[in-house]
Write a structure and sequence with these properties.
Elements lengths: L1 H27 L11 H31 L2 E3 L10 E3 L5 E9 L2 E6 L2 E6 L3 E4 L6 E4 L3 H16 L1
Parallel strand pairs: 2-7
Antiparallel strand pairs: 1-6, 2-3, 3-4, 4-5, 6-7
């Protein structure tokens, strides 16, 4: 058994000798680690990525600015939600004009269409234009509410 172990150790030493010789040669010398990469495609990718990031930052800035402006809003009172008051969305786009109040909803008319907007989603501007109300509901939600009310009344 002892002879087998000696034979195995000797074989391993002989097999490893060339590797040790190579390491010994590298220790005294230099190793070239230069990597060459074409930057054409990388430069284009970087330019496109930078443009996309800039566009995203601009959109986020716009959203943050709208949110900051929205902090100047206070929940509208029933007295402020009166017939003839203009209703806009957060972007300042006209939603319609208040026709009346029905329970907890303001009936808003726009182009012959009636919209029920909950009083809890109408805000008045703390400063600036009087008589103008702002809703935080997206236009799609307002339209969906109108369609649902029309379908319910048709049944």
């Amino acid at each position: 058994m002892r002879k087998a172990l000696i034979l195995l150790a000797g074989t391993a030493a002989l097999a490893g000798a060339p590797a040790f010789a190579q390491v010994g040669g590298v220790v005294g010398g230099t190793v070239d680690t230069t990597v060459q990469v074409g930057t054409g495609a990388v430069g284009d990718t970087l330019t496109n990525t930078t443009a996309r990031v800039g566009s995203t930052v601009d959109r986020v800035d716009g959203t943050v600015n709208k949110q900051l402006d929205a902090t100047k809003l206070t929940l509208a009172t029933r007295d402020q939600v009166r017939a003839g008051a203009q209703v806009t969305d957060r972007g300042g786009n006209s939603v319609g004009t208040v026709q009346s109040i029905d329970g907890d909803n303001a009936i808003v008319v726009d182009g012959g269409k009636l919209y029920n907007i909950p009083l809890g989603s109408l805000y008045s501007q703390a400063e600036g234009a009087t008589g103008t109300l702002v809703t935080k509901l997206p236009r799609a939600d307002i339209t969906a509410r109108a369609q649902a009310a029309a379908e319910a009344s048709a049944r």
